[in-house]
Amino acid sequence: MKFTSNHPLILASQSPRRKELLGLLGIPFDIVPSDIPEPDPSSFPSAVDYVRACAEQKAGDIAKNDPDALVIGSDTVVVLQEEVLLKPTDKPQAAEYLRKLSGNAHEVITAVSIRQGDQELTFHERVLVRFYELPESWIAAYIETEDPYDKAGAYGIQTVSGLFVEAIEGDYNAVVGLPVAELLQQLTRLGYVKLEGAPDYAK
How far apart are CA 11 and CA 19, in angstroms? Predict the structure, then answer.
């Protein structure tokens, strides 16, 4: 099962996890990450507004240089009691995040922005994630690895820290970083993508 697009496809992210998930469509794509600094979460009224703005910023930055391309921008945040947990900058912050998440439920919000020329569509997925109680020794051992420091909330559900997760409600791939099933639905609805060998693109 393979999909095709009538536009060159660009992923505006260097995340290996998003690269792997977008690759499920079977459409060749280029990776052109945006280097614009992300805004301050505190300047937005909600975490959803923030993460959508980040996705739109990434897609818009790349799309302006290639108006024919179909550009996908995405961003993910972890939210605990309205506090946005970004990527930790050091071991103490990673440990702090994990202690906060331990034994609690939190939200993972992933936003996706689709840009082609002056056309733009942004959507987001919210997933509820619950952690087991984490022994302090587990936290101490985990923050000594390289795993926490490129991930919002200091963990990745698809890595060893997925062992901290008791349950999720929602799209697993949205927690990983790209709700690729919903993305495919949006792309086919907009007529940008079709199943290879299927009739002409939807209008």
Answer: 8
Cα 107 to Cα 22, 165, 177, distances in angstroms: 23, 12, 13
Distance CA 1, CA 19 (A): 18
Give me the active site residues, please: 75
Determine contact, residues 141/148, Cβ cutoff 8 Å.
no
What are phi and psi for residue 168, nearest 5 degrees? -135, 155
Task: Give tens-digit pLDDT for 117-159.
Answer: 989 999 999 999 999 999 999 999 999 999 999 999 999 999 9
pTM of the model: 0.92
Q: Which of 63, 55, 3, 57 is nearest to 28 (CA)?
A: 3
Q: Which two tokens stand for residue 13?
A: 């992210």
Length of the chain: 203
Neighbours of 32 (CB within 10 A): 19
Q: What is the 3-state secondary structure (H, E, C) of 56-108?
A: HHHHHHHHCCCCCCEEEEEEEEEEECCEEECCCCCHHHHHHHHHHHCCCEEEE
What is the per-residue pLDDT across 63-106, written as a single tens digit (0 to 9) for each? 999 989 999 999 999 999 999 999 999 999 999 999 999 999 99
CA 5, distance to chain mean position in Å, is 22
Residue 190 banded pLDDT, cuts 50, 70, 90 = very high
CB 194 within 8 A of CB 53: no
